[in-house]
Amino acid sequence: MPRMNAGSAIVECIRKEDVRYAFGIIGSSYLEVLDAFYDAPDIDFVSVRHELAATHIADAYARASGRLGVCLAQGGPGVTNLVTGMAVAKHAFSPVLALGGAAMTTHDQRDAFQEIDQLNVLRPVSKAVFRIGRAERAAELTRHAIGTAMTGRRGPVFIEVPRDLLSHEVNFVSQEPHQYRAQANPAPSTTAVARTLSMLRAARAPLIIAGSGFKWAHGSKELIHLIDTLQIPLITSNANKDLVPNDHPLFFGQLGPRGSSVARDLAQKADVILAIGTRLGFTTTFFNFNYLNADAKLIHCDVEPQDLGRVYPIELGIVADAKTFAVELAAEEKKNRAVDTLQQWREWANSSRQTWIDKRRADIHEPATPIRTPRFFAELRRAVPKNVHVVTDAGYWGNMATDAFDHFECPSLFTPQEFGCLGFSFPASLGIKFAKPEAPVICINGDGGFAMNMQELETAIRCRLNPIVFVLNNFSWGVEKSYQKDFFQERYVGANIGNPRFDKLAEAFGARGVRVERADELGDVVSAALKSDLPTVVDVIVDPSEISGLRRDAVVARKAV
Ligand SMILES: Cc1ncc(C[n+]2csc(CCOP(=O)(O)OP(=O)(O)O)c2C)c(N)n1
Ligand SMILES: [Mg+2]
C-alpha cells in the first residue's frame, strides 16, 4: 500500500476531481500540501494577491467549469479572509473546497499564534466544515468534504488541518469519484411527472421558471428540449437567462428587479407556474407577489426538499434533479401529446416581448455623452461576440448589466447572486478565464467595486488572462448614494469617493488601459481589447447623476412606492 504524508494524501484526493488549478496564498501552516503540488503535473497552484480573491476565483472557476473550485489559505488571518467569498459561493450553490492550516494539536486551545476557532468562523458561510483531527483520516475526510460540495445542492466546504499532522506518513488507497460520491441526484416519481403534465394541460396560461439547478446539472440542452416539446413559455430566475439561447422563440427573459418586464408580465398572468431548480429567491421574486401571480398554482421541483413551499405555497412539490425531471417530462409528454390550446397565450407573450425588443433597439439613438446605461449597453451589445461571458458586480452599473446582454452559451452570465457582494466581478472574471481561456470575458463593475480587488491585475498579467474590465466610474458608491439622494434630501454621508485614473493604474500593472468619455467609442475599444492577450481596463466616465436604488424593500419602507 502506498505511503505518503497527509498533505500529499489531501492533494491526491483533489487531483481525482480533474481540477486544473488551486488558488491561494502560501503559508507555513500547510507546507506539505503546497509541496505536493510541486509533483502534481496536472494541477497548478496559482498564487493570488488576497485570499478573498482566491475564493471568488475558485467560485467562478467552479461555475464556469462545473468542476470543484479549490482555494487554500494560511491558518488564522488567511482563513478569516476567506469568509466573504465563501458566503457568495454558498448563496450561488457553488462547490468550492477551501482548505486552511491550523495551530498544532499540541498548542490547540492555548490562544496560540494565529489560532482562532476557524470552524465556527467558517460554519455559517459553508455548506459544511471539517477538521482533520488524525493524519490517517486525511483522505477519508477530504473525499467526504468533496462529496458534500459536489452532491445534492452543491456548496462550499471548509477543511482545517492542524499543521503538525500534515507531515505524518499514512497509508493511501486511491479512489475514483464514483467510489466516494453519488453521481446523480434523485429522479422524480412517475406520479409526479403525470400530475405535473395534467396540471399543465389544464392550464390556460402555463409558464416554466427555470433556475440554476439546470446549470449545475448541465441541463441546458434538456431544458430546451422540454420547452420545445411542451411549447410552454420559459422564463428564468435572476442571473440565469443564459440557460437557453436568448433568441429561442419560447424564451421570455429573466424574472426579478434586475430582470425584464416581459418576464414579469408573464409571471403575473400565468395561471400555472412550473418552477424547476430555483428557490424563487429574493432577487427573483422579492418574496412578495409583485412578480408572481398570487393566484397561480405552483408546481415546484428542487433537489432540496426543505425549499419546497418555503415562501410560496405549492400545489405540487417534487424533490428531483432539474435535468432528470425535464427529460422525464418531455419523454412522457411525447407519448400523450395533447391538442395545443395555448396559441393565444403565446401570441400575447410574443407581443409583450416585441415591445421590449423595440425599446431596447431604440437605445442606440440615445446621446453618446454623458454616458448613461441605455446607450452604453446598446453599444456593448453590438460590439461583443455572441459567446460573450458577462460577469457583473453589485452596484448600480453592475446590476444593470444582469439583463443587458443576449446570451447564447450556458453558462455565460455570472453574478454575485443573492449575497450581492461588491468586489466579486473582477476576480471572478479571472476564474472564468482559468476555466475557459478562449471565452471572451467582460466584467462590469463600478469604481467602488473594482477598487476592492484591483490588486488581482498582477495575477491576471502573471497568468496571461485577458478579460475586458469596464469600470463605470461615477466617483461614488452610486447605488447606496441614491437612497440618500431620494430619501434623505441629499444629506450625503460617505457617498462620494476619489479615484486614480484606472487606465493609468492598469498600465502601471502592465495591463492595457483606456479611458472612455463617449459611448460611441466603445465599439473600437472592444475590438482592440479582444485582439490583445493582455487584460484591458476601460475607465468609463459616466453620468454621475444616473444612480437609482434597486432595493425595493428600502424604497417601500419609506413609502416611496
Ligand atoms: C462588500 C460590500 N460592501 C458594501 C456593499 C453595499 N453596497 C452595495 S452597492 C454599493 C456601491 C457600489 O459602488 P460602485 O461599485 O462604484 O457602483 P455604482 O453603484 O456606483 O455603480 C455599496 C457600497 C456591498 N453590497 N458589498
Ligand atoms: Mg460608483
Q: How would you sum up this structure, described in words?
A:
The structure is a single chain. The protein is of the alpha/beta class and 561 residues long. The protein is built from 24 helices and 20 strands. Strands 3-2-4-5-7-6 form a 6-stranded parallel β-sheet, with helices on both faces. A 6-stranded parallel β-sheet has the order 11-10-9-12-13-14, sandwiched between helices. Helix 23 links the parallel strand 19 and strand 20 (536-541). Helix 3 (51-65) packs across helix 18 (425-435). The chain is globular and about 70 Å long. The protein binds thiamine diphosphate and magnesium ion. Thiamine diphosphate binds next to helix 17, strand 17, helix 19 and helix 21. Magnesium ion binds at residues 395, 446-448, 474, 476-478.
Task: Please describe the structure with a list of short key phrases separated by commas or semicolons.
561 residues, alpha/beta, 6-stranded parallel beta sheet, 24 helices, 39% helix, 16% strand, binds thiamine diphosphate
